[in-house]
Amino acid sequence: MAAPRAIGIGLLGLGVVGSGVARILTERADTYAARVGRALEIRRVLVRDPRKPRPVELPPGMLGTDPEAVLGDPAIALVIEVMGGEQPAYEYLCRALERGKYVVTANKEVMAKHGPELYELAARRGVDILFEASVGGGIPLIAPLQRDLLANEITSMRAIINGTTNYILTRMARDGTDYRAALRQAQQLGYAEPDPTNDVEGMDAAYKLAVLASLGFRMTVRPGDVYREGITRLHPREFRYAAELGYALKLLAIATRDDHRVLARVHPALIPAEEPLAKVDGVNNAVEVVGDLLGRAMFQGQGAGSMPTTSAVVADVIDAAFRIAHGGEGRPAWRADPDAQVCPMSELQTRYYLRLTVPDRAGVLARVTRVLGEQYQISIASIIQKEADETARTAEIVIMTHLASEGAAQAAVKSLEKLDVVRAVGALIRVEGQA
Amino acid sequence: MAAPRAIGIGLLGLGVVGSGVARILTERADTYAARVGRALEIRRVLVRDPRKPRPVELPPGMLGTDPEAVLGDPAIALVIEVMGGEQPAYEYLCRALERGKYVVTANKEVMAKHGPELYELAARRGVDILFEASVGGGIPLIAPLQRDLLANEITSMRAIINGTTNYILTRMARDGTDYRAALRQAQQLGYAEPDPTNDVEGMDAAYKLAVLASLGFRMTVRPGDVYREGITRLHPREFRYAAELGYALKLLAIATRDDHRVLARVHPALIPAEEPLAKVDGVNNAVEVVGDLLGRAMFQGQGAGSMPTTSAVVADVIDAAFRIAHGGEGRPAWRADPDAQVCPMSELQTRYYLRLTVPDRAGVLARVTRVLGEQYQISIASIIQKEADETARTAEIVIMTHLASEGAAQAAVKSLEKLDVVRAVGALIRVEGQA
To answer: Do B63 and B50 contact (CB within 8 A), yes or no?
Structure first.
């Protein structure tokens, strides 16, 4: 009996992840062929420069610069996209799906900006797009959302989903260093890019949150729908005060659904120190999902790196190849909830940590609490007077509020800044404990 | 156009979990029908006593005591087993699979004792057996092992997989109470059974570990292959000393593979306090998996309870029903690694915590270290002399060893117990830090 025909694979991109994927698919060809029931064969690889030396050996002639050589090859049933960036990756993915090829992608930007269009295009063409590697490296997140949590209505997702910023914040918390110093350390270790903007301003986390929220809430959440605040203005003393109050300070990506109203946001937040998320340190990632049946579950691991990402890409490849070999649709299709809508950040209700620098004299607290309480109906859970600066004759006060609306909190900060008894509003940080 | 025919479901058992499953399948019928593409219809429920009042309302006549009414109904394509216990559950599952029905089970005992036979029977009949709920309640574990980690060779699984014992140990660590008092608290809160043997002696954890190891390592690991030590003899001072040394004390279920040699064990262990597993407290469960590509990932959540278990059962039901509706084999079949074998516990290499009560006088340490070092080649990492008992003129010493073999450690304990300078060996606990 002739061996069944191999499943042809096209690879778009041969950088760090692409080389890892090509190497593992080659080295473990026999194992994966046994798991799928047919061999997996890389036929074509799209690169920018075919002569560039690569950490993986592929037969000469397999590499080329013409996308059509991959996308137009009828023997290629499965396209793996590991180029990154919105364009031309998005265009190539559309062309692959249009031609009835399965697609596996690690591209968070494309999935965040165009995920729902790609799901629908894949469904129309009777194929699928798999993107486990786009969020959280090798941590299984996408497939569990698509399968294991299907019995649930998901009500909340809270994530530490950017390793660079979590490393920086962990350093600041442990060493008491300032943002600049911690960033430099992260850069020296290769955890932060020379230009760290995408990470430290929360763009990377916002992309990933858009992917998770679109999938988990069955709606279209674009990166622009995600409220975003980075970590660059966090002062070292916030970590000290947070710890004294029993909190950790993390960059959280949070998406919550209340009935059909969804709020998605990325910002620094205080979390009670005993919560599992508060204990996720260094470059680790973690995603906590709350489902109405499941309760709270957390997925944790290395959110980046060539081999963890390869693990996710190849799992998707095996899944897609298995369906190509054996038929079947795989899993329930994504279908948008027509009633779901994204809310503006001003509707957020949460608790706040507020740090003020004030003159070290009597009567100041009364003025401040009157603005919060009478003018904005923000009720105060606790006030702590921190150290005074003898020379400047100022003191620092840290206020923890009860639940308040974001709109009121922002307006209150503006009013406080105008008070003659407030020298500066040092920080306004949301407090995100388990409900 | 006529609506597509409903998928008939038979339910074996209508206890706490069965009632939850029946209620959720009924209440969310429209949602799940949309996800599957066909309605899901419970047709028959096997119970012991049809007249017993239930927390869920089902049409009269649906409940019955004859298993054949469920297993022999050709309109039932999917059988959900939530009876628990080995027999007659195992027999019913075999009969359902033989007749070409998909099976969803929450039964850890059956899966631990007969999993590989059931996988093979299902494959032979062209159907599948799904058992996400058998381990870790609603936490996605089984499906990620079957899908998301398929690119990896899994080398290690370490789990806190019994909520009862983790609750008891958490209480002992936090409150300094002894085992009896912590067990009573757990019983009062409903976290421990009146007869807690299955939990506190590690049987429940051993079942679950057998399921995980068989699946993750692709081999047959039976509950009897799992080395097992319970928590009933742990002394409160171990928690104090462990904390002082920077460790947490947990009941771990550990399965490791080195080449084709697998070791599976359930016993109390010290874990470095900064590891994620050390921070899993109370009734929570967590499973940490190490894959050669993935690195380390951890899954955490509520390991028991009616609704979390229902979440897992219904996810499996939706998955199976989707395949019944749309065809497709779902995922690569489990296939045994013919070379894999279970090793005896004596081959374990790990580090040990050893607590001895000795006379409070000179020369004792020298005698003890000579036995360990010269007689058994166990080298010592640190020795701490803990408090002395003035009246009894004894002192306690805590020894942390370097890597040693289990065989040597057990033999050394026997030799130490015979020394006239050793009043008692208070504890020998394995130390399980990340390699």
So the answer is: yes
Q: Between residues 151 and 210 of chain A, which touch chain B (CB distance below 8 Å)? A: 151-152
Q: Which of B309, B326, B331 is nearest to B36 (CA)?
A: B326
What sign results for the dihedral spanned by CA atoms A301, A139, B307, A273? positive
CB contacts of A323 in chain B (<8 Å) are 328
pLDDT in tens, A366-381: 999 999 999 999 999 9
Tokens representing B256 are: 């490791």
- Residue numbers of B annotated as active site: 208
Please name the member of A144, A314, A322 whose beta carbon is closest to the beta carbon of B331: A322
Q: Do B326 and A322 touch (CB under 8 A)?
A: no
Nearest partner of A216 among A152, A120, A293, judged by Cα: A152
**Cα–Cα distance between B89 and A158 in angstroms, integer?**
39
pTM higher than 0.80: yes
Residue of B nearest to A152 (CA): B311
Nearest residue in chain B measured CA to CA from A154? B311
What's the pLDDT at B55? 86
A331–B contact, CB cutoff 8 A? yes
Tell me the count of A-B CB pairs closer than 8 A: 180
Check A151 against B319: CB less than 8 A apart: no
Cα–Cα distances in angstroms (integers) from residue B382 to residues A195, B363, B429, in the given order: 46, 17, 15
Provide the CA B428 distance to its chain's centre, in angstroms.
23
Classify A362 as helix, strand or coil. coil
B339 pLDDT higher than 60: yes
Asked if B332's CB is within 8 angstroms of A318's CB, the reply is: yes
Residues in chain A, total: 435
Place of tokens 């026997």: B414
Gap from B287 CA to chain A (nearest CA, Å) = 10
- B37 vs A332: CB contact, 8 Å cut-off? yes
Chain A, residues 102-161, CB within 8 A of chain B, namely 132, 138-140, 143-144, 147-152
Whether pLDDT at A48 is above 80: yes
The DSSP code for B118 is H
Mean pLDDT of A124-139: 95
Distance CA A238, CA A335 (A): 42
**Cα A8 to Cα A18: distance, rounded to the nearest angstrom:** 16
Per-residue pLDDT at B14 exceeds 90:
yes
- Strands annotated E in B180-260: 227-228, 247-258
ipTM over cut 0.90: yes
**A394 bridge partner residues:** A359, A389
- Find, among B345, B342, B365, B343, the residue nearest to B410 by Cα: B345
3-class DSSP state of A152 = coil
What is the secondary structure of B162-182 as a DSSP string?
-HHHHHHHHHHHHH---HHHH
Domains of chain B in sequence order: 7-138+306-326 (3.40.50.720), 144-302 (3.30.360.10), 346-431 (3.30.70.260)
Indicate the residue of B138, B150, B291 with minimum beta-carbon distance to A294: B138
Does B59 contact A at CB distance below 8 Å?
no
Among A143, A293, A329, the residue with its CB nearest the CB of B147 is: A143
Query: Residue A298 phi/psi, 5° resolution?
Result: -130, 140
Q: Which two tokens stand for residue A15?
A: 């950088």
Using CB atoms, which residue from B300, B317, B326 is nearest to A329? B326
**For A38, nearest residue in chain B (alpha carbons):** B332
Q: Is A349 within 8 Å of A271 (Cβ atoms)?
A: no
Helix axes B16-27, B306-326, angle to 10 degrees: 50
Q: Report chain A's C-alpha Rg in angstroms.
A: 25
Burial classification of residue A70, based on how many CB atoms lie within 10 Å of its CB (0-12 exposed, 13-18 middle, 19 or more buried): buried
Beta-carbon separation of A315 and B291 below 8 A: no
How many Å apart are CA B108 and CA B22, to the nearest integer?
20
User: 3-class SS at A404?
Assistant: strand
